[in-house]
Amino acid sequence: MRRTFLQGAAMTVAAAALPKAGVAQGTAPAPAGAAAPPPAAARAPITLADFGSFHVGGRDFVIAGQPTREVLFSPGGQLARVDPNGTYLIGGMYAGYMIPSPQRGRFPLLMWHGGGLTGVTWETTPDGREGWQHFFLRRGWPVYVSDATERGRSGWTMIPEATGGQPIFLTQDNPYERFRIGDGPGSLARGTTLPGNQFPADKDSYRSFMRQNVPRFTTTDELTLEAYGALLDRVGPSVVMVHSQGGFFGWRAAQERPDKVRALVLVEPAAVGDIAKAAALKDIPMLVLYGDYIDGDARWPAIRANGMRFAEAVRAAGGSVDVVNLPERGIRGNSHMVMMDRNSDTVAGLIQEWLAGKGMWA
């Protein structure tokens, strides 16, 4: 983590510099019946002590014995000879950070996204509201948002020998049905959702969400875990917040570096850590959140049950795991994309209260 911040006047994201009337610039109008995002000018300014980005992790990978070829990089240019043989750097990871002024979070807050997604998960919502990055930044948390290995701004390699497999691409129907938004097969075409669903599922918002989706590998977990470890080593002791596939990396990274994880927040984790190393988590407070519609889903009852078994193993080893099923708290209608649902600030408030209760916020 950068320890030297800008001196003198802090940088302020001033609301006065943004559009003063109507819907915030670049934000589509809210669908009928939905709460419109507040105009940019109505939001309080955010004051930053520092912001920036960096890349961490990665390993060398050597390719040999491949033929050279000529490539035209730009129309009207000249052919260039490309030799694919040599040493590649693969598995690096991007992280962007914002440090507020004043700070109230006692540790940096690292946000790790789920499968087929990038750090945009935390930055905004499909209908133009502020994301959890803003929510926690406004409450004084230094926030680090990363793009996992092979996604977003973290670089990309199509070398099969390096990735160990082929990337997976998703149709528009897939997340709509699998993320507990639509009410079954064909629901995207019908434009129907689960009753009371809070995800902004109007056509414009959902297409905005699909624009965020990226190819993913199921074979680069080791590379990704290495990169998250490198991120923790660079930033230092942190609160780690994860979503979906990120649950695997959050639990595993905490097991490998328990001195670097002060608390772990898991939003619908889709996988668990190493149950044989459950005791490594005994000094890390953990909060696990699950949304709505799980009992009627084909996959999520088993996924949640796996998470509960892992939580029990951590408790048996002397650890602390708080599990919240949001409907039981009266917070209803949440899809798998909890941080994008229309009641996302309500859930973020619950997390903020838990972190404060654990002494992570002053």
Automatic annotation (TrEMBL):
Q: Which UniProt key words apply to this protein?
A: Hydrolase, Signal
Q: Does the keyword Metal-binding apply?
A: no
Database matches in SUPFAM superfamilies: alpha/beta-Hydrolases
Record-linked InterPro entries: AB_hydrolase_1, AB_hydrolase_fold, Carboxylesterase_BioH
Q: Which GO terms describe its molecular function?
A: hydrolase activity
Q: Where is the signal peptide?
A: 1-24
Cite the AB hydrolase-1 domain residue spans from the record: 239-281
Classify the source by domain of life.
Bacteria
PANTHER family listed in its UniProt record? HYDROLASE ALPHA/BETA FOLD FAMILY, PIMELOYL-[ACYL-CARRIER PROTEIN] METHYL ESTER ESTERASE
**Entry protein name:** Alpha/beta fold hydrolase
Species assigned in the record: Muricoccus vinaceus
